Amino acid sequence: MAHTHTEVLRTTLLALLHPLIRICLRNGFSAKSFFELVKRVYADVAHEEFGIGGKLATISRVAILTGLTRKEVQRLFDAEQSDMAMERDQYNRAASVLAGWLKDPDFADRSGRPIPLMMSDTAASFSELVRRYSGDMPARAMLDELLRVGAIKQLKDGRICLLARAYVPEKGPVQKLAILGMDTADLIATIEHNLYAQPPNPRFQRKVMYDNVSEQTAKEFHSIAAARGQELLEALDRWLAHRDRDVNPAAKGTGRVRLGIGVYHFEEPFRTPRAGKSK
Length: 279
Fold this sequence. Notes:
By secondary structure, the chain is mainly alpha-helical. It folds into 3 domains: 15-80, no CATH class; 82-204, no CATH class; 207-245. The protein contains 9 helices and 2 strands, in the order αααααααββαα. Strand 1 (152-154) and strand 2 (160-162) form a beta hairpin. Helix 3 (59-66) crosses helix 4 (70-78) and helix 5 crosses helix 8. The longest helix has 29 residues, at 215-243. The two termini are 30 Å apart. The mean pLDDT is 85.
């Protein structure tokens, strides 16, 4: 018997929500708060993307599409925006500074390797790097953040050295949660595009997976995946950097597109499906 779209979507959402709800429970985020966010997103997406004739959807149309009342929709629109916007901004700025340090020839030696930088008083300084790639973020605040997460170190003579090729806030759970939203949203947006794009123009989306390997193999795979994944990302990073107009103002083309690719490693103990929950 063929499954309906609704049945498949329900099963898909259950799989998607399990790891997300684990994160919510670990951080004391209640079901009530989660439901409130779900309603807000339903209202926002319906308002912005499901209007008629290229216009934003009215409150009445949002209510019809989402099943919420008009009063509830209005209340959601009046609610304050999430503080996570600030965390996303910090993540984007820090990542941009590190990327600029790796790509911009003004902050590299003749071989293209990123050079140690003084805080200021030089043309190729850390302050200039932050100004160029982070806008109005104070250089001292950026220095403190990158030191905190171990992406850079400061030598006794004051020079600042790059240690990491990417901004990964290992010591900052709040920032990690912000990355969860952005990276997962990118993956789901790719899946949505591959489902509904007209005409069909699929984006690259592949996965390799086996479910009966040893723990020793898993440990070996961890190292191989990290090394080869990093090689792939660095090669694509160099290709994109040459075509990014912030890094290379001579790059040609029209419009502006946000573009990239993500690689991730998943692993968990194999579990047989459960028949049901005990009372």
